[in-house]
Write a structure and sequence with these properties.
InterPro entries: AAA+_ATPase, ABC_SmlMolc_Importer, ABC_transporter-like_ATP-bd, ABC_transporter-like_CS, ABC_transpr_FbpC, P-loop_NTPase. It comes from Portibacter lacus. By secondary structure, the protein is α/β, with parallel strands linked by helices. It has helices at about 40-50, 90-100, 105-120, 135-145, 165-180, 195-200, 215-220, 230-240, and strands at about 5-10, 15-25, 30-35, 55-60, 65, 75-80, 155, 185-190, 200-205, 210-215. About 35% of the residues lie in helices and about 25% in strands. Bound molecules: adenosine-5'-triphosphate (ATP). Adenosine-5'-triphosphate (ATP) binds near residues 37 and 42.
Amino acid sequence: MFLEIENINKSFGDESVVIDLNVSLEQHKTLSILGKSGCGKTTMLKIIAGLVVPDSGSLSLDGRSMLEVEPAKRNIVYLYQEDLLFPHLNVFENIAFGLRIKKIGNVIVKSQVEEMIANLELEGQADKMPHQLSGGQRQRVSFGRAIITNPSLLLLDEPFGSLDAGTRKNMQGLFRRLAEKFSITSLFVTHDLKEAILMGDEIAMMESGNLKVYKDKMAFVEDSNTGVKEELTFWKEMMG
Ligand SMILES: Nc1ncnc2c1ncn2[C@@H]1O[C@H](COP(=O)(O)OP(=O)(O)OP(=O)(O)O)[C@@H](O)[C@H]1O
């Protein structure tokens, strides 16, 4: 498999935060991970990104062992909820940043960034500074900045957590379209049940450091632990 995580464990002091983590994910797929606050989701993502060192286990991406590789060389992008844009750069330059670092020529930068701005539905916003954007627009710029460098793996930590319901719904649709168009492989962490079902090709749930990956969405829906059944009962009772 493209992403293979085997038996990763992590404790802080005597608190086991990630327990026997096992994940395999095909390229170009999204695994959504549902989990409550404090269950260890962020620690798991940080281990994959190389920002936290696990106590044991292995991690490989595209057949290459990753734990020895420093974070900047993993080609993994970790995107979190309040991801900060560079405040002194406009939308165009924020998105262009990863290309500029790679010393890519101006003509190519211009065409790639303009195409990305169109894909992000941010036409006409290229010259705005981050503080002039709405939350949803800022989040789109963050996506663009991450995707344009063509990462092997995108780690999304509750990326829409701070958005209102309507904007969140738009962003979910936009992310699905971008994931398809740019053949993104990603882990999508959320505490929203519906979002987990909508965003993932595969689905998993994390509870107190244990990640359970379901064989398919039906298995997830049928597990009474996930809360789907409760939700259905609620709506049935509401409707009489
Ligand atoms: N550097 C650290 N030192 C000590 N304990 C830590 C550290 N990082 C995380 N923890 C603990 O590990 C547990 C899981 O934290 P983590 O941030 O992974 O949770 P989470 O599922 O992402 O939660 P949230 O959704 O609230 O961000 C928490 O009890 C937290 O206090």
